[in-house]
Amino acid sequence: MIRVAILISGGGSNMVRLVESMVDDHPARPVLVASNDARATGLDKAARMGVPTAAIDHRPYGKDRTGFEAELLKPILAVKPDILCLAGFMRVLTPEFVERFAGRMLNIHPSLLPKYPGLHTHRRAIEAGDTEAGCTVHEVTPVLDDGPILGQARVPVEPGDTPDELAARVLVQEHRLYPAVLRRFAEGKREPVFL
Ligand code: GRF
């Protein structure tokens, strides 16, 4: 059985869909949900779904990313994950951390990469006058939001959209895309999924 650990920072709506998808004939199962914030409401949702959780507060470490990651690694390595999924995880990870999981670490980003890496993706798409937006699941590499694309889903940008309205439309597609990509990835498939 392929073991999946999921990192979150907040509500964990993508994590919930991933956990819900790993049932029956799915080749993977969730073994941990970890957060950089003990207040992340996604932790309660994971616990209610029977998934072990861990919280490592990043704030005491300040700019010491390596120190924070050394603590974060403990519960992760303890469950021996085969795949690491970042799902609404809002901390930038060091290249050293990423290298540990090279080729088996996924992230979902709320834009059609390579457009709009980084933050405020929906506002940027609206301000650019884009008529389309969406989300991307990619392999995580040391360069932020830059790894091989494993899947994308597109939505229209409607006239007058606010960033929140566009974010809500994209989030619906995130919840479809991430489970679809994770299943194929767990099955050893690497050709990208386009929804
Ligand atoms: C989502 O827009 C996701 O794309 C981004 O974080 C937001 C919240 O995700 N990375 P979740 O509800 O915590 O999964």
TrEMBL record:
InterPro entries assigned to the protein according to its UniProt record, in alphabetical order: Formyl_transf_N, Formyl_transf_N_sf, GART
CDD domains noted in UniProt: FMT_core_GART
GO (cellular component) term, any one: cytosol
Chain ranges of the Formyl transferase N-terminal domain: 3-182
One Pfam family in the UniProt entry: Formyl_trans_N
GO function terms (MF aspect): phosphoribosylglycinamide formyltransferase activity
Known catalytic reactions: N(1)-(5-phospho-beta-D-ribosyl)glycinamide + (6R)-10-formyltetrahydrofolate = N(2)-formyl-N(1)-(5-phospho-beta-D-ribosyl)glycinamide + (6S)-5,6,7,8-tetrahydrofolate + H(+)
Record: residues binding (6R)-10-formyltetrahydrofolate: 65, 107
Site (Raises pKa of active site His): residue numbering on this chain: 145
Membrane-spanning intervals of the chain: none
Function: Catalyzes the transfer of a formyl group from 10-formyltetrahydrofolate to 5-phospho-ribosyl-glycinamide (GAR), producing 5-phospho-ribosyl-N-formylglycinamide (FGAR) and tetrahydrofolate.
Protein name per UniProt: Phosphoribosylglycinamide formyltransferase
Record organism: Thioclava atlantica
Name of the gene: purN
